[in-house]
Every structure is written in structure tokens, then in C-alpha cells.
Amino acid sequence: LPKQIQYHKLLGYLTNKHKFRDSQLDAIKTLAEDNKNLIFVSPTGSGKSIIYQIYGILSQAQMLVLSPLIALQKNQVELLWKKWIPATLINSSLNKEEKNKRLENIATASYSFVFAHPKQFLTKNFDTNQIELKLSNKLLYSPFGSLCIDEAHVIDTWGKNFIEEYGKLLILRKHLKCPRTVLLSATLTKKQQKKIADELFLENEKPKIIVTGFYRPEISLHVITFGLDNPHLTTREDFIDDLLHKNVGKKVIIFATTKNQVDNLTLFLKQKGHNAEGYHSDIRSENIRNIKSQVQNRFSGNEPPEIEILVCTSAFGMGINIRNIRIAIHYSLPFSVNDYYQQVGRIGRDRLPSDAYLLNDVRESTRWIDFIDQKQLEKVLDEHKKEELKSILEKEKKDFTDYVNSPDKWKYILDYFGDTLKLSIWGKIKYYIKKIFII
After folding, report:
1. What's the pTM value of the predicted model, to 2 decimals?
2. What is the mean pLDDT of residues 41-65?
3. Which of 199, 220, 352, 362 keeps 20 to 30 A from 325, CA to CA?
4. Boundaries of each Helicase C-terminal domain copy (predicted)?
5. Terminal-to-terminal C-alpha distance of the chain
6. CATH of 219-437, one of 1.10.287.180, 3.40.50.920, 3.30.70.1030, 3.40.50.300
7. What value does the mean pLDDT take over residues 404-422?
């Protein structure tokens, strides 16, 4: 069959869909037809996995997939086996007998996909303080026709001093004779993409970079600044109260930085007559998973009593997946542009108009971020690693401050990730009309 037909047949078989999303097909062709390496950056839920899966199946050679979390590895292996595609994982959770059995099968290329953490291949030599190949591991000598690095942002964000093996993947690529490689991420910034392209690939094999899907035209981004002697704005609480009264009946999620903020804001809103509930990790029932399931059902209206306004910490709110949340409010500044984008992504999943309000109190500014950053730094004992983490946190804080002050919020976000505004003429007209009327 022609490759074009094979692509669509596999898409239908793997996903039950018959149309590729934006740039998926271009990404697959980059690997399968152009024989180029690839860095593919697209938001969570945009279908990045299908790229390595279709290419891996068509290549008819065993693909090594590097993934930082055992839970992600297990999930992917289970999904592939449901489609009768042979896949396995190698990690520390396996007993010796089971691990050896799988290694024997991998040695004869019995699988289409093998999932592992870089620690299976690389180790630190404490005499030289260098990352080296784990020459005793049989996995290192197994036949792999291609390589996928999932959650590739780990390479630059934490791969220098925290998950050091991720920072030395060129050693592994050279040992495997530089196989066709695809990197997938939802959060690689434009600067990180270039840095990884330079550090992980040799001069004659530089990857194509595809960034797509970050613009959400249904979401309007607003920044409301307090503490500048504006007679029309008093406190963040009063602004939220007024906004909620104007949007009665709409689903609203409010992100707060601390548990105390969640509790105090929830109490304030209830006293003002709003149907609000607050949640964070200190609120216990049987366990946190049951709580999240209960909140999901009450917030979506599937279980009484229904919640209209959910006040929560970012960690709790990221587990909420409801299509018709209309408004997101950030009571305090998030820690990074990436965190903010991920949290705002909770709203408007049904593609209907939605609004995100970031409340910037100049009297508080980044005080909470500084406080929590300091708590993170106190946990790190190694001074070199502490300086590295401090540098990362300072950079993220500066980037977010630049976002707050930027005149065009969506343009800043797209530039940050290296995406571009791909709109028709009518789409551009609507974009700039909306921009004029944004608060």
C-alpha cells in the first residue's frame, strides 16, 4: 500500500479517528519519508504518541522509548497491547526472573516498542564524577532501529544536575549508532528546543523542529493589576465577587498558591452567597484519588450537590477534566509561563468562548513564588545543584513577569514555545478585534 494510505489505516486502527490533527502527518513524514530526526512540541492531549507509534510500526524495527515515569511506561504498554502491538518495559519494579525473560525477548527483537528510563543504560562513575554507559546491562546490546525520547523537556530542565542521565543521552545515541530519533514534549520552550538540538545531535543530523497547537482562540487572556490607586479596583476578593455575580451559572475554577488562600477565599465566597467549594491535599476523605473523583463528578453536575465554583491549589486543579469550564481565575501569580498555560488549559475544552483572569497584586508581586522557591532550595543539600535550581527558578520567574507586562498575551505565549499564529484572514481579523476589547 502507498505510505499515505498506510498512515491513515494505522491512525484509524490506533485511535478510531480518520483525520490527523494539525502537523501530526507532517511529523510522521519527517521521520518516515524525509529520514530526518524530529523535535515535536505540542500541548498535552494533542496526540503526540501517535507520531512515534505509527513511525515505529512502519519501520518494522524495535523502537526504544525513553520515559521518566514508570506510570507513563505502564500506561503506554497497556494501550499498545490492547491493539495487539507487542510492547514491554524494563524498570526497577521487575523481579530478576521476569526481567531476564524480557531481556531475552528484546535481544531477538520480539517487540515493536521497549520502554525504559535512561538509568537502565547510563550510570554515574563516582570516581570520575562522569556519566558513563552501563556496560554490564544486556539491554545496551539489544537491537534498536529507532529512538523516542518522551517528556523531552526533562533533558534541559532537570538533566544537568537532577536526573543527570537525561543530560548525557548523546552518549547513548552514539552507542546505538545514532538511530532515527524523535523527541516529544508539551513544554519545551523555543530556547530549550535549540539547545537540545545542538547538544543531542551531531552536526550532520540536526532535527526538524515542529511546534504546533498552542493557540487557543476560544480563550481570552486578561491580566488585572491591583495596588495602583485605581478607584475602580479595590481588592482581589471584591473583583472575584463582582465577576462571579456577572457570570452566575457558569463553571469557574479559581487557582490559589497556598492552602490558606484556598480556605480563606472559599469562606469569603460562601459568605457572599456563591456556590463554592475549596479543595487541596490536606482535605482528606478515604484518599486523595476518591476526593478528586468526587469533585470531578460534583463539578460536572453528575453527582449532587453540584459545585459551580471550584477553589483549589494548582496541583489539585490539574486533575480536573471538565469540558465546559468557562472561567479560570488565578488569585496569585503562577510559578512559570508553562504552569500558567497548563492551568488555563483546563477551561474551554468544548471550544466555546472562555476567559482567563490573572490577578496581579503589585503589593504581593512574586512574594509567594519567592517563599515557595526558598522552600524548594532548602531541600537541596548539594550546593552546586542548589545554584542550578536557583538559576532555573529565577529564569522562570522573570519569564512570567515579562508575560504579565506584555501587550499581547497570546503572542508572548506562542513566542515562548516557538509556535506561530496560523490563522485565516477572517481568523486574524477576529483575533485583533478581540485583542482591542480585552481588559
Report:
1. 0.83
2. 94
3. 362
4. 227-393
5. 54
6. 3.40.50.300
7. 93
